[in-house]
Structures are given as structure tokens and as C-alpha cells.
């Protein structure tokens, strides 16, 4: 039976203004950054359900029991505000569950959490993702910085392994280049598996927290930080499978 993975985030809506001389009009388009990730995991031991960012405000579970139906929860390019501000709280001033606290309790009780980098992961662009000093950060192997944590590497950056680990199983050869990542710091309880080559910045790290596990990949799962050379590389699929295998492995 396939294990169930909930991918939260990795979508956005863009608006454009088109000005043609005296006249102008506006358009809106919806985008997803999850397509390559979901396609790579087809016919694997993991069934991925995508909850886009706009749906997460209402649809992300409000109970621990709701979270525990998932073997792995992934937060990718979605800020803390979307999970904190349910429409009942934001629009109607009603009390609702603190879903960052629920994620903490989910991991503590034996769940598995992954955070993948992006403009609204970790601390994010202009510090807007706001996971620093939250209960989600408490279970991660890394700490978020207090400011805009994006590191753009238009010249390309690569992975440097710091120690052998199961997440590298069956991945051989040279790793493709990346175009950026979120800068973070290690928690004392975390285990550093890979850095961005030439820096001490964590790229891949893991942690066991109470009965559960967490893992971070501080670059993206898709463009622009992860180019086609990476998402079409055979190791792309294997990396995520290895991560899920470790996260869901229990003695």
C-alpha cells in the first residue's frame, strides 16, 4: 500500500497589467511549481496529494487527527501566515486552531515533516515566510534567520556531501547545479548531511524529534532555483524517495 504524502504550497497567482498606448487591461494567471515533483513520484511507494497555497488557508487540517492521516507532510513555498490565519480568524475574528502548533504535535507524536526551500519557506523573501521562532521551527534540524534568507546563485551552486546517509542511496555521479537556496543555521540537535559547496550553509539536514522525524532541503523543488537539468536528472526522483523512506522508517 502506498504511503500518503501531503504537499502544501507550491502555487501562486500572478496579475499583469497590459498597457497599449492609451488603453490597458489586466489579466490573472494561476501557476504551480509542483508538477515535476509529482510526476517524478508516480509509480512509487508514495502517493502525493497537492494542497495549493490558496486552498491551504481553509483546507489544511485543524485537528491533530486530521494531520495524522498523512505519513509525510511537506511545507514548500508557503508562509506561516497562510496556516495561522484561517478565514474564520482573519475575516470573522473567531478563534481557530493554531496549525503551527498542531504540526509540532504531529511530529512529536510520530509524524514526519519536510520543509523545502523557496521564496516563502523558512524566513523567506523580506522575512515574509516568518517561520523563525515558531513551533514548526522547533521540530526542524535548522534555525531560520531573522531576515530575508534568500541566497541567489545565478552562476550556479552545487551540493557537497558532509557525511554518508540513506538519503544518498542509489544516487551516483555528479549532482546538477542549482540557482539559489534559503540560508539557515543548524540546530544543535540536527544532523547536517550536505552543504552548498564552498559554504557552510546547510542544504540537506535531518532530525529526530521526540517520536517523529523532520528533514529540510533548502533549495527548491522546481524553477527557478532548480533548473530542468536538475528536475530531469535521474537522481531527482531517487532523492525524494530516499527522503521519504528515511522520514517514514520506524524501528
Automatic annotation (TrEMBL):
<dbReference type="InterPro" id="IPR029062">
    <property type="entry name" value="Class_I_gatase-like"/>
</dbReference>
<feature type="domain" description="Putative glutamine amidotransferase">
    <location>
        <begin position="4"/>
        <end position="248"/>
    </location>
</feature>
<protein>
    <submittedName>
        <fullName>Uncharacterized membrane protein</fullName>
    </submittedName>
</protein>
<dbReference type="Pfam" id="PF07090">
    <property type="entry name" value="GATase1_like"/>
</dbReference>
<dbReference type="InterPro" id="IPR010768">
    <property type="entry name" value="GATase1-like"/>
</dbReference>
<dbReference type="InterPro" id="IPR017027">
    <property type="entry name" value="STM3548-like"/>
</dbReference>
Amino acid at each position: 500500500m502506498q504511503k500518503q504524502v501531503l504537499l502544501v504550497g507550491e502555487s501562486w497567482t500572478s496579475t499583469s497589467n497590459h498597457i497599449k498606448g492609451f488603453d490597458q487591461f489586466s489579466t490573472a494567471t494561476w501557476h504551480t511549481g509542483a508538477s515535476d515533483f509529482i510526476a517524478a513520484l508516480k509509480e512509487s511507494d508514495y502517493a502525493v496529494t497537492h494542497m495549493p497555497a490558496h486552498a491551504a488557508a481553509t483546507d489544511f487540517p485543524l485537528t491533530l487527527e486530521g494531520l495524522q492521516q498523512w505519513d509525510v507532510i511537506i511545507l514548500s513555498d508557503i508562509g506561516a501566515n497562510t496556516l495561522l490565519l484561517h478565514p474564520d480568524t482573519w475575516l470573522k475574528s473567531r478563534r481557530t486552531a493554531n496549525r503551527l502548533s498542531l504540526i509540532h504535535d504531529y511530529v512529536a507524536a510520530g509524524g514526519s515533516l519536510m520543509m523545502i526551500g523557496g521564496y516563502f519557506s523558512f524566513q523567506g523573501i523580506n522575512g515574509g515566510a516568518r517561520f523563525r521562532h515558531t513551533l514548526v521551527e522547533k521540530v526542524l534540524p535548522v534555525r531560520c534567520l531573522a531576515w530575508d534568507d534568500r541566497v541567489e546563485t545565478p552562476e550556479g551552486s552545487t551540493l557537497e556531501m558532509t557525511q554518508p546517509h540513506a538519503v544518498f542511496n542509489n544516487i551516483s555521479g555528479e549532482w546538477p547545479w542549482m540557482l539559489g537556496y534559503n540560508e539557515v543555521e543548524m540546530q544543535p540537535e540536527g544532523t547536517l548531511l550536505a552543504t552548498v559547496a564552498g559554504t557552510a550553509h546547510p542544504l540537506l539536514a535531518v532530525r529526530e524529534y521526540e517520536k517523529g522525524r523532520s528533514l529540510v532541503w533548502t533549495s527548491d523543488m522546481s524553477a527557478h532555483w532548480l533548473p530542468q537539468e536538475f528536475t530531469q536528472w535521474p537522481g531527482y526522483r531517487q532523492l525524494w524517495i530516499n527522503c521519504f523512506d528515511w522520514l517514514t522508517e520506524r524501528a
